[in-house]
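Suppose you are handed a protein chain with no further information: no name, no annotation, nothing but its sequence. What can you learn? This example shows the usual starting point.
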Amino acid sequence: MGEEEAVADENGGLKVEESGDQSPSWPSMRFDVSPYRTHHFFKQFRTARNPNNFLKGLKWSPDGSCFLASSEDNTLSLFYLPQDGGDTNGYGVPIPEADSYGASLLVNEGESVYDFCWYPYMSVSDPLTCVFATSTRDHPIHLWDSTSGELRCTYRAYDAMDEITAAFSVGFNPGGTKIFAGYNSSIRVFDLHRPGRDFGQYSTLQKNKEGQAGILSTLAFSPTNSGMLAVGSYGQTTGIYREDNMELLYVLHGQEGGVTHVQFSKDGNYLYTGGRKDPYILCWDMRKSVETVYKLYRATENTNQRVFFDIEPCGRHLGTGGQDGLVHMYDLQTGNWVSGYQAASDVLQFLMMTMKIRTTFN
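A reasonable first move is to predict its three-dimensional structure. Written in structure tokens, the prediction is:
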């Protein structure tokens, strides 16, 4: 084994490129080296009261200091990373009998959690920014304090019968000033600093029946401040809107199932969409948007579970799980498969990447 491979192995597949100056740089991902397990969390999610509990989603905080996990028992669990980074011997840890450590915070919602998201400028060094939003069945949107677990405020939407209606998807705009929420054939926009029942409502179904119908299950903003918003629907469509006035720019067709996840590339030129019981993630060129650029395979055709994917911080690779428990890594420049490894024995629903850390749950 050469010196370069030895260094990469010690860093869990990350080859840190050094230069003459001391300016910080991203590590170069080495997917020909299998990652190793550094932490393990299992028993705290499986209790005698709820032995069949399972994880539904995970999202890293924007500053990379912690991650938030949503589980079937309507609970959100917050885990901070150890200051020392955990395992440092380069060999990882076997699956232990006990969890690596317990959650720092538990937030229990009254009903099933549909979606959750971090405030985009969250920093653990500024407690005022340490908040996340949740959308829950039969409940308004909640804004939670991630340091104390207290409910900061609520954002309430009402239907024609003046009853509270729940959002199916939720997300902050890039400026962090508004909360966008997806409902049935409509988007509601709340001012972050004005909690309550004040909101702007925009129908996604035009009078001529064009547009997007059905449950709006996922949304994502372009990271380049271009003002574009992508919204996925269970009607198997993805709509592209202007953020400022929710004008519908165009609708993308091609997903075999209801769209459950949308994500822009780091440069905002491409959009990736995935659907329920659909084995392909579709890549769309936002400058053309007529047909797909390529398709990325994942084993999801026989599961009703929502399976997420993510793009690593450098923006060159996409990782996705599947019902076979495998993680697949793809080169986004070519659409070619790069590598894969077994991360779980059952459905791997989510894979979120941040900083130098790639995490999966078994």
